[in-house]
């Protein structure tokens, strides 16, 4: 059973083709600059050299067509024909309250995705374009939507409601939704496996740390809180996003700087975070380098980020009545030895401490806490694509 996993951005398509008999990746790749000059497809068959294909990729449908042609190409393909692909799984950012799990794509589901556009205007439209393109090019092949928000739908109202008039929630769905759910789900399950335990016995805090960052509190297999909110802007300080701030700052700065709502939105989403604090970059690697050279604002950005993560960890320990494991994942969480150490320095009261030798690891699943620690600390590379492929197989297995 071969499953294609697709993740469409506004001008990009990431993809992986899985052989679900052993969950191996047959090929993966990236289409970039869709609709722009210099569009390119970088295709990577397993065990072979990368193939770079350039040309006019005017829209997502053309991009998906190029992907399918690359997968079935006589020279660099990995399947004899498109007919070998029996199902397609799509990453969809926002499912609102409509979807608490992955679902088979139907006309009703598509209408629901359209309704969620106003809550994810940058993400849901390209996700929908990808689904429509696959439906056009692969008629009759079942498709599954896997939602970033779904895993967090087990949060209780006490965790997801804001202190606004209740009508804002009833009329417009204004509440905490959370994101990165597929990643939080995968790494928490993987941590349980590494501990030889079942999720239903554990309290786990997962730290998805990268340019976009979020934490989740997972109590006995269910998400009970997460740091991102109505949009991915809330929560931690991130690469370019401000994270949680006093809402009164927004009208104050708009008046002082004469900003329009759109300019304010760009200020909060694209000019803030560690970029805004450091004045150096939104890339933590650049900031760490600058801090190492004595840049005080770069060091301050790192200090602020680590403090915010540690603050959320403490809050989630209180929410769950304890913690059994803390997991680091995503670009920064998997690769920054220094940031993991900085975050965990001060968590000794939980009965845990990083082993500095074990922590000298990047991009590899490994426990990094000292031997015998009451609370285990893990580095676990995330694999959202595998979760999507598994959900797609589970849902479509009876249809094929």
Automatic annotation (TrEMBL):
KW tRNA-binding (keyword) present: no
GO MF annotation list: acetate kinase activity; ATP binding; magnesium ion binding
Annotated pathway: Metabolic intermediate biosynthesis; acetyl-CoA biosynthesis; acetyl-CoA from acetate: step 1/2
One Pfam family recorded for the sequence: Acetate_kinase
EC class: transferase
BP terms from Gene Ontology: acetate metabolic process; acetyl-CoA biosynthetic process
Subcellular location: Cytoplasm
Site (Transition state stabilizer): 180, 241
Binding site for substrate: 91
Stored PROSITE patterns: ACETATE_KINASE_1, ACETATE_KINASE_2
Listed cofactors: Mg(2+); Mn(2+)
Stated family: Belongs to the acetokinase family.
Reaction equation(s) it catalyzes: acetate + ATP = acetyl phosphate + ADP
Protein name as annotated: Acetate kinase
InterPro entries, A to Z: Ac/propionate_kinase, Aliphatic_acid_kin_short-chain, Aliphatic_acid_kinase_CS, ATPase_NBD
Keywords: ATP-binding, Cytoplasm, Kinase, Magnesium, Metal-binding, Nucleotide-binding, Transferase
Physiological role: Catalyzes the formation of acetyl phosphate from acetate and ATP. Can also catalyze the reverse reaction.
Keyword Secreted: no
Cofactor note: Mg(2+). Can also accept Mn(2+).
EC number: 2.7.2.1
Bilayer-crossing regions: none
GO CC aspect terms: cytoplasm
